[in-house]
Every structure is written in structure tokens, then in C-alpha cells.
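User: Sequence recovery, please. Input:
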């Protein structure tokens, strides 16, 4: 037995003592199983977005909402939307139900409980359909959502804030359903105090714990969840203040709303055709659902739900370009010495550099980028091979082709830049010895440079062209020779 399992066994024993006395809710494993088997059936063909089977899944969810007796939000359960997946515009449909709170004031505030019901559809191999059933991902979460809604309707006045029950569509294509709800304010997002999204909750026994990323995005969140988890014999892990960005919590978190991601991880046959209903741990799902229902009731009655300062700050800066960033930068390319008098034709030689860069936002789409790098440059001169070790410092004015509003979801930029560079050669090799920087080679080079630079989240990559303006040789009779280099660059933001 490992240290971890010994610790969890002890915890579970302790928990069981508290549990039986205190747990308020008992979700039905049979209900959960029924929902998963319906949604992950082969006939649902993997619930690909905008497919006839995804309409069937939506109908199933709406029927459940109706039979439980929750209200359609704004008079209807279906809230269709369109979005772009790659180059194609397509359609999705979020299903939204409302359970009204009982407190005359708090009922105007909301908790959002969600789960995505779409999956990745099916493949065709040798004209046979291979269905990705998506039982754990995410029929399990939708089943938990429906069962949570059912339990919440039995609380008889205990629910103070209102709860929005949302089955998100188009999660697998890039969180499109949840992003639409948040960006288009389909629901009153300013009054949403906290949210969670159940995504893959069918493997509690195998995972031995419930992961709950984002638990600490709410003030005192960890102790709040730990206390209730104890009653249900649930071990929590992955607690913290990072909003999970691979599921529907992300758009809410970006807005500064405390967002939690309960999951039993990706240990099921994740995004494989084998993710089937008969593999899931329904008792575990029932425990998780009961636990989350009690969390919802408890939270709905708390006088205040406060986002931690870091989350609030992040939301404040949302959509604004980062003022300053820096990182590592590597360049690899070639250099050629341009003999303008034409008496010698040089060849392209290796050139590379490694250093740090800094990027400063000036105003609207303009940025200043500089770097300090150690450079290694080789050249074929008329007098033989030349190697130079140098310090290379470019300074560029960058213009962003992407407007700041569009770059919001992760700082994407396409920069066109132009400026200059300075190179100081501190050592080298020429004709078997140190080059003579006093009366043979110029110690400094400078010139103009320009190019294109892409930034995707933390990674920068691009192309820089440098054209020297200073002569390579300090000797007057050596001719007019200038460096021209072409460099591919790769950067990583700290
Ligand atoms: Zn999922």
C-alpha cells in the first residue's frame, strides 16, 4: 500500500464517521445510469455538434427538465446560437433551465451549474461507423446535472439564490456554447456569483478522488468544499485558484466569476470509441452529485460569495493587452556578406543567437520589442572564413494586425515590425587567430531590420531580415562589404 492510499483510507474512515450523520442528499445511481445509457447509446452517434443525434440528446435533456419541473429560462429551454468552427459557420443549442431561489433579495443572484452534452461524433472506417459514445465525456456530467436539478427541486425553501441549470453545446469544438452565453450575456452574467461545470465524473473509484480545480477562486473556497466533501466521504484533489481552461469553466473565470471544475480526470478511454456506459462508476457519480447538490444549497444561502482578488484582477485586465512581457529567444538562420564592388561573391553561412527579449505595449496596436542576445556568426570573406562572437541588440516597433478585442482569449498577435539593430563583436576567429578589431575588422555593426512575428499564447515565432549599414572591414582598401542576414526566431514568454 502506498503512502497516498494509506492516507486516503484513513481519511475515508474518518469521513464515514461524520458522513452517515450529516449528509443531506442522496442522488440516485439508477437515475444517473439511465441518463448515461440513453445519451451514450450507439444510436446517439457520439452527439456531434449540429447533428440529428445531438438534437435527440437535447430533446432528451429537455424532457428530463420538464419532468423534474424546473422552469424554462426566459420562457424556453432551447437557446440556439451560431459559431465558427474553423472556416465553417455552424449551429449549436444550449439548454437552460431555472430553479428560482426563495430569498426575496438573493433570488436575483445566480449560481450556474453546467455540463456539456456534445461529444465528438463518429468516424467511418471501411464504410462502418465507429461511434465515440462519450459516456464519461460527458454523458456522465449531463446525468449529474439532471440529477442535481432534481435534488434541488426537493429542497423546499432551502435554496436562497437562484440556480441556472445549463447543458452546454459545442464544448468539444472550443467552448463555443459557454463562450456564447458569457459573451452575449444570454444570462445575467453580472449577477452570477459562482459556477461549476461537471465534465467527466464517472471514474471516482479509479481516480480515488474528485478533482476540483478552481476551488480557491472563491474566498475560503477550499475550506468550504473540504468541509462538505468530508460528509460524503469524498477525497478532493487538484484544489487551487487556477480556472480550468479545457472546459466550460473558462469563459466564466475570465469574467471574474469563481468557477470550479469537478472531474474524475481523463482516465476513462478519453476521446476514444471505447468510452462506453458500462465502464462508469455510478455509485461514485451518485456520491459526487449528492456532494455538489449540498454545495449548491450551502452556497445559495451564504450572505456573500467573493471572488479572490487575483481572479477579479484578471477579469479587470481581460481584453487589455499585457503591458510588459519578456522571455527567451532563439534565432537560427544565415548570413551573407554583400561585396558591393562585385570582385568577390560570398556564400550564405550559419548565423544564430540566443538571449532574452522584452515586449512593451505602447498604445493601441503598437508595441516596442527589444532583445539582448549572444550571437554566433560565420562568413566567407575574400580572405577566408570568418567567425564572430557578438552581442546582438535589435530594437523594433511592432504593429499588431489583430485588434486588441480579438486577441483577448490568450494574447494572440501577428506583428509586422521594423527598426534597427546593433552588434558588438567581442571575439572571433579569422585566418587561425583572433580577428584584429583595431585595423582590420570593424568592432561594431548596425543596420535596419524588419520582419513578421506571430505570438500564440506563450510562444513567439517569426522571421527577421537584417541589412547592415556599417562596413565589415575597417581597412579602407578592403572594399565596401556589408552583412545581410535572414533569421528564423522562436521565443517563449516567461
Ligand atoms: Zn468534456
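Assistant: Recovered sequence (494 residues):
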Amino acid at each position: 500500500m502506498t503512502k497516498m492510499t494509506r492516507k486516503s483510507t484513513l481519511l475515508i474512515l474518518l469521513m464515514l464517521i461524520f458522513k452517515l450523520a450529516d449528509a443531506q442528499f442522496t442522488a440516485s445511481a439508477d437515475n444517473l445510469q439511465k441518463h448515461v445509457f440513453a445519451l451514450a447509446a450507439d444510436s446517439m452517434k457520439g452527439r456531434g455538434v449540429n447533428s440529428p443525434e445531438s438534437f435527440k440528446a437535447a430533446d432528451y435533456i429537455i424532457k428530463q427538465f420538464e419532468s423534474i419541473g424546473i422552469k424554462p429560462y426566459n420562457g424556453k429551454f432551447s437557446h440556439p446560437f451560431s459559431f465558427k468552427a474553423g472556416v465553417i459557420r455552424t449551429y449549436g443549442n444550449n439548454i437552460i433551465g431555472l430553479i428560482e431561489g426563495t430569498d426575496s433579495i438573493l433570488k436575483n443572484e445566480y449560481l450556474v451549474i453546467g455540463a456539456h452534452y456534445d461529444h465528438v461524433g463518429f468516424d467511418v472506417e471501411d464504410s462502418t461507423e465507429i461511434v465515440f459514445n462519450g459516456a464519461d465525456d460527458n454523458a456522465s456530467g449531463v446525468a449529474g446535472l439532471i440529477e442535481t436539478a432534481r435534488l434541488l427541486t426537493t429542497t423546499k425553501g432551502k435554496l436562497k439564490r437562484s440556480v441556472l441549470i445549463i447543458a452546454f453545446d459545442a464544448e468539444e469544438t472550443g467552448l463555443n456554447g459557454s463562450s456564447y452565453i458569457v459573451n452575449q450575456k444570454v444570462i445575467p452574467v453580472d449577477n452570477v456569483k459562482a459556477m461549476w461545470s461537471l465534465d467527466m465524473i464517472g471514474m471516482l473509484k479509479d481516480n480515488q478522488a474528485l478533482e476540483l480545480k478552481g476551488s480557491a477562486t472563491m474566498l475560503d473556497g477550499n475550506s468550504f468544499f473540504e468541509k462538505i466533501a468530508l460528509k460524503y466521504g469524498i477525497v478532493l484533489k487538484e484544489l487551487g485558484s487556477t480556472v480550468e481552461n479545457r472546459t466550460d469553466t473558462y469563459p466564466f473565470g475570465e469574467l471574474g466569476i469563481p468557477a470550479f471544475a469537478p472531474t474524475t480526470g481523463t482516465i476513462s478511454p478519453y476521446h476514444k470509441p471505447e468510452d462506453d456506459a458500462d465502464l462508469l462508476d455510478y455509485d461514485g457519480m451518485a456520491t459526487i452529485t449528492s456532494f455538489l447538490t449540498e454545495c449548491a444549497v450551502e452556497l445559495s444561502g451564504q450572505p456573500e460569495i467573493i471572488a479572490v482578488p487575483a481572479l477579479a484582477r484578471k477579469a479587470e485586465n481581460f481584453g487589455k493587452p499585457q503591458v510588459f512581457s519578456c522571455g527567451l529567444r532563439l534565432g537560427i538562420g544565415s548570413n551573407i556578406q554583400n561585396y558591393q564592388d562585385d570582385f568577390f561573391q560570398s556564400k550564405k553561412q550559419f548565423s544564430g543567437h540566443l538571449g532574452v527579449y522584452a515586449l512593451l505595449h505602447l498604445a493601441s496596436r503598437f508595441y516596442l520589442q527589444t532583445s539582448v542576445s549572444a550571437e554566433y556568426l560565420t562568413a566567407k570573406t575574400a580572405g577566408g572564413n570568418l567567425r564572430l562572437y557578438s552581442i546582438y541588440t535589435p530594437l523594433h516597433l511592432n504593429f499588431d494586425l489583430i485588434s486588441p478585442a480579438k486577441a483577448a482569449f490568450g494574447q494572440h498577435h501577428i506583428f509586422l515590425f521594423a527598426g534597427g539593430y546593433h552588434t558588438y563583436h567581442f571575439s572571433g576567429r579569422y585566418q587561425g587567430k583572433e580577428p584584429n578589431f583595431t585595423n582590420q575588422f570593424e568592432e561594431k555593426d548596425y543596420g535596419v531590420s524588419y520582419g513578421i512575428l506571430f505570438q500564440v499564447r506563450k510562444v513567439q515565432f517569426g522571421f527577421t531580415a537584417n541589412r547592415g549599414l556599417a562596413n565589415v572591414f575597417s581597412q579602407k582598401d578592403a572594399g565596401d562589404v556589408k552583412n545581410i542576414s535572414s533569421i528564423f526566431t522562436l521565443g517563449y514568454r516567461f
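The radius of gyration is 30 Å.
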